């Protein structure tokens, strides 16, 4: 079997409301790049990458000469063809490779008639558990609803998600408002859900000293971990030395060199594996094996997925014996999807691992066309900017730029 072509389509899919984070805002929609890898046997594999828009489409087109004539079964050859370590110094293609790896695994699974998890060693769980992933949110621009700014709104939102989807782990994405205010919100959340597990992620925006203070204030809560409390391995190492909560990251240990450094001089206890950031599903499986050897925790990270990438997260979660934490997903914030059958369903906080060959999802061509047109209409947006705070940009640590929690929009 040989690859004959690659196609990339930029889409934008609406969110229930704009999601605020320490570095900006998801502007009420996700921009994703959908990848289709075609073969001479008529099998088409699907991949997905975050953001990019026109630039990602052109980048995938630029890889066509690397891919045409390549056997999709030769995944290690593919890895070096696209992400040769020396060449990557000039052309970092890790995330592009991830989307193509997804598609190749999809092709292999379809060719062999087996789900991708069978290619990864076989599943040990039928469902993957997810956390609620709570954001501070601007109101929906059309109806002025869905704002999350106050502790009361945060609790109401979490209760609604628990009722609809069954989440029993709650992650608060912070770094938006002053630390003392977010501490009040987090403590209120813990008080409202005394039996559930919690995690807090200020997106690296706190100083080491702010992170230590915050960590001390939440030590007695039912925390999974303290995610990216500050920036850098040494910064997180200092927090870890002072706070009795496991640390976690998806920003400073995202490749094998960083993982080795963290093992030799520990800073992070829980590594958040992202099928895009690590370059594919298979690198995440390898990294999980390293973590198992050295008894580091793992979880599955979300970088803002539609159904194709969610499928990669489910197949990854299905095969990891040391996955002891609920996975992250933005998925419940979406209003729609581009896969056949619409959005996958949560049951008791979990999503079933797809059982059909390959990734187990197929494109809804009408939805793909609809959201490709919406992308052409709305275009992309700067992830690291806030449309309601013109001229603002984040400092790191953020010493002069937290949002005003008393201001409603």
TrEMBL record:
One family name in Pfam for this protein: MR_MLE_C
Gene Ontology molecular function terms on file: glucarate dehydratase activity
Catalytic function, reaction form: D-glucarate = 5-dehydro-4-deoxy-D-glucarate + H2O
SMART domains per the UniProt record, alphabetical: MR_MLE (SM00922)
Leader sequence residues: none
Pathway: Carbohydrate acid metabolism; D-glucarate degradation; 2,5-dioxopentanoate from D-glucarate: step 1/2
Protein name per UniProt: glucarate dehydratase
